[in-house]
Amino acid sequence: MDNVTTAECLTLDFGPFETVHRWQRMPECDEFVGARRSKHTVVAYKDAIYVFGGDNGSRMLNDLLRFDVKEKSWGRAFATGTPPAPRYHHSAVVHDASMFVFGGYTGDIHSNSNLTNKNDLFEYRFLTGQWTEWKFIGVTPVARSAHGAAVYDNKLWIFAGYDGNARLNDMWTISLLPGDTRIWEKVAQSGDCPPTCCNFPVAVARESMFVFSGQSGAKITNSLFQFHFRERRWTRISTEHILRGAPPPPARRYGHTMVSFDRHLYVFGGAADSTLPNDLHCYDLDTQTWNIVLPSADSQVPSGRLFHAAAVIGEAMFIFGGTVDNNVRSGETYRFQFSSYPKCTLHDDFGRLLNARLFCDVEFVVGEGETKIPAHIAMVAARSQFLRARIRQAHEKREKHLEEVLGSADVPVKDLPLLEVKLKDAVPEAFEMVLNYIYTDRIDPTKRFEDTSNSRFDDPLNNGIVLLMMDVYRLAVQFNMKRLEQLCVHYLEATISHANVLEALHNAAHLKLYFIKEFCLSFIVKESNYNQIVMSQEFETLDQPLMVEIIRRRQVPQTRNFSKQYESGTGTTLEQDMEAFLISIGKEFCDIILMLDGVPIPAHKAVLAARCSYFEGMFRSFMPENNIVNIQIGEMIPSAESFASLMRYIYYADVSMPPEDSLYLFTAPVFYGFTNNRLQAFCKQNLEMNVTFENVIQILEAADRMQASDIKKYALNLIVHHFSKVARLPRLKQLSRELLLDILEALADKHRF
Q: Which residues form the BTB domain (predicted)?
C-alpha cells in the first residue's frame, strides 16, 4: 500500500481542545470536605485524583479525598476498613486498581507526642473502597518518612528517606501481585548512587526511576539521577561537559514535585534555598536538556509552594495543596495542560548529514599534514563569516584555474572537483569539533571521533582534552563564532584545575590566547591556589618568563573580571544562522532550483537532503535535469505562502504559520519523509486554535483545494455562524463561483432547520 497520505484521507478531529502550557485554577476543596494541607500524597486513577493524609498546620490527617477531573468537583472518597493512622511525608502509588500507602511520620504534632516514623504498607482498593494493612514475612525496611516510591514490573520500590536520626539511600522492593509471598527484598544498588536524601520526588519513565535534588545536607545538588530497574544500576546524568548553550538545570531544592509525561520530566515548586519558585522546569529525556516551560498568556499560574503533590491524568498535570508563603497550608488545585509535540530533529538531522558525509561539496585541507575533511558549503557558509569568505576565495580560485586550463569556467557541476579550502594553522581534531558545532550547535569533548582512538577524549578533565579545547577556542575566535567562543570559555573556566593549569597557561601563551592566559594567571595567584601550584614539580619545569609573570602577578594582583566579556546570550544559534541563510546570506550558495507552479525558488541540496528523505533519495539516485525539481505535495501544488512556511521549517524548524498554510502542509511530513511528524502536530494545533471569521475564507479555499471535506465543512459552519462579519470581508468577493454556491447552500441548510 502506498505510504503517502492522500488528500482524500486527510481528517482532523475538530472539537473541544485545551490551550497547551496553560495553567488553570480548579475549584478549591471546601473545608467541610477536606482541610487545606501539605506533605500529603496525590495519585491518579481513571478520571479522578485521590488525596491522602498530610497535615493542616495543627494536626496530621488520614482522610481520603477525591477530585473528579471531568465534573471538577471534590468529595470524600468512599472507604471501609481501618485506614492508616494520620501521617505525613508518606508515599502513595497506584498498581492495577489499588493505591498503596507506605511509611510516613505519625503522632500528635500539636502536643509533640508519640511522633514516630512508620514502615507499614496499606492497600486501598478503588473499586470497593476497602482499606487493608499488609503483613510481611522476614526483614522489613527501616521505618522512614520523606522517601521516594515507585511501581515497576508489578513491584513497589522504596528509596531513601529519613529514619528519625539520619537520611538514607537504601532501596527495597516487594511484589504487589496477588498470591505472591509478601517478602521485602533489599536491593543491591550499583553505579553512581545519589547521596543520602529525603524530601525528593521520583518519576518513572523508560524502564527507569528518576530522582532530582532533595535534602542531602552538605551534599545537596541539583543533579538528576537515573535508576535502571533491570540492571539495578544508578547513573548520574552528567551533561556539564557538553558545549551547547542549553539552559542550566533547576536550582537545588526540596519539597518539589516531578512527574513524567511523553518524553519529558516536569519539576514544579519546592524550596530553592530561601525562595519558593513557581517556574515549571522540563527535562527532555531525548536531548538531555532542561528548559523552563513558559505558560500560555491566559494562564492562572500557581504561586510558589513546597510539600504539595502532583499527578497526571491524560495530557494534564494536577497539583494540589502545599505550603505557600508564611507557612500557610493551601487547598488550591491547579491543572496544567501538557504539549506532546514530537521533538525537534533539526540538530540531529544536520548531525547525521555530517556523519554520513553524503553530498559533500567542499573539502577542508587542515594542518601541516594536510588532513582532508569533507563538509557542505551550505552549512559552513551559514555559520561562519570567516569560512564563508574563504569559500568564496576558493571558488574564485577554482574558476580562474578552469579558465586557464579549459578556457571556460562553465563546467557541469557533476564534473567539478570538490572545492578545496586550506586551513594550514588549524588542528584537525579541533576543526572536527568546530564542524560538529556548526552542524549541531553542540560539542561533546569526550566523544571519540570515528577516525581516532586517542584516549585523551575519554575524560573531560583530562589535560589533553583541555588543551584541545583551547585549540577549539582559538578557531572559534578566528572564525568569528561568538557563541562557540563563549561556550569554550565557560568550559575551560570549569575544567582548569590545580592539576592542569600550568600546562594550560603554557599552551595559552604559545597559542597567544590572551584571555585564557589571563584566566590561568588569575587562577594561579588566588590565595587558596598559589602555594600548592608554585610548590609543585610542574612549576619547576615552567618557562622562566611565565614563572616571572606569575610572581609579579602575585605581588600586584589584577581585579579585572574576565568572565564579563563572555556573558550568556552572545552570538547566534543554529536556528538563527539558518534563518539568515535562507532569507539572504545563502542565495549565492544555492545549488538547486525548486520550481513551484512555474516560479523558481533557489535552495541548497545539503539542507534538503538532511531534513527530507524524499530529497535524499532523489539526490542519491539521480540528479534532476538542470538541477530543477518540480514541487508538489502528493497530487497538490501548495500555495507560495505555504511553501515558504515549509522552507522555514526545513531550514530552521520554524513552526509559526497562518492556519491556511497549516492545512496545505498537513500531509507534507509524510510526503517528504521528515524524521517525525512534528510539523503535522503543529499544523493540527494551529488549525484547531486559530481558525477565525477573519481567516476562514482562506481556510475554506485551502480545504476545497485539498479535498479535505471535514475541514471544509467546519469552515462553512463557521462562515454561517459569523456570516454578518464574513460578508464584509473583501476576500469573499474573490471566491470562486463554486465556493460561493457552497456558502449559500450552507446558509439555506441553517434556515431549513
A: 360-447, 590-659
Residue 1, pLDDT above cutoff 80: no
Query: pLDDT-based confidence at 570, cuts 50/70/90?
Result: confident
Is the model's pLDDT at 9 over the cut of 50? no
CA nearest neighbour of 174 among 190, 198, 195, 150 = 150
Rounded Cα distance between 225 and 238, Å, is: 9
The answer to whether the beta carbons of residues 479 and 229 sit under 8 Å apart is no
Which residues, in sequence order, are CB contacts of 302 under 8 Å at separation 6+? Answer: 23, 25, 269, 278, 319, 332, 334
More confident site: 199 or 456:
199
**Which among 59, 24, 25 is positioned nearest to 39, based on CA atoms?**
59
Burial classification of residue 198, based on how many CB atoms lie within 10 Å of its CB (0-12 exposed, 13-18 middle, 19 or more buried):
buried
Model confidence pTM above 0.70: yes
pLDDT at position 565 is 54
- Compute the distance between CA of residue 649 and CA of residue 440 in angstroms, rounded to an integer: 16
Asked whether the beta carbons of 298 and 21 are under 8 A apart, the reply is no
Phi, psi of 164, rounded to the nearest 5 degrees: 105, -20
Q: Which of 63-77, 566-580, 597-611 has the lowest mean pLDDT?
A: 566-580
Q: Which residue is listed with cell 502506498?
A: 2
Q: Inform me whether the pLDDT recorded for 363 exceeds 90.
A: yes
How far separated are the first and last CA of the chain, in Å rounded? 42
What CA–CA distance (Å, rounded) separates 73 from 67? 6
Selection from 364, 413, 421, 366 nearest residue 395 by Cα: 421
Q: Which residues, at least 6 apart from 215, have a Cβ–Cβ distance to it below 8 Å?
A: 146, 167, 197, 198, 199, 200, 254
| Residue pair 413/215 in contact by the 8 Å Cβ criterion | no
The 3-state secondary structure of 441-474, one letter per residue:
CCECCCCCCCCCCCHHHCCCCCHHHHHHHHHHHH
At position 538, the amino acid (one-letter code) is: E
Confidence of residue 629 (pLDDT cuts 50, 70, 90): very high
Element at 302 (helix H, strand E):
none
Is the distance from CB of 714 to CB of 691 less than 8 angstroms? yes
**Are β-strands 233-236 and 224-228 bridged in parallel, bridged antiparallel, or unpaired?**
antiparallel
Looking up cell 496544567 gives 336
* Of 497 and 410, the one with more pLDDT: 497
**Whether the Cβ atoms of residue 207 and residue 238 lie closer than 8 Å to each other:** no
In the block, cell 531525548 appears at: 286
With beta carbons less than 8 A apart as the criterion, state whether 712 and 703 touch. yes
- Note the pLDDT of residue 184: 98
Can you tell me the distance from the alpha carbon of 49 to that of 267, in angstroms, rounded to the nearest whole number? 19
CA–CA distance, 560 with 715 (Å, rounded to integer): 64
Contact 611, 650 (CB under 8 A): yes
Residue 407 has pLDDT above 80, yes or no: no
Sequence-distant (6+) residues with CB within 8 A of 259 are 203, 265, 266, 310, 311, 312, 317
Count of residues making up the chain: 753
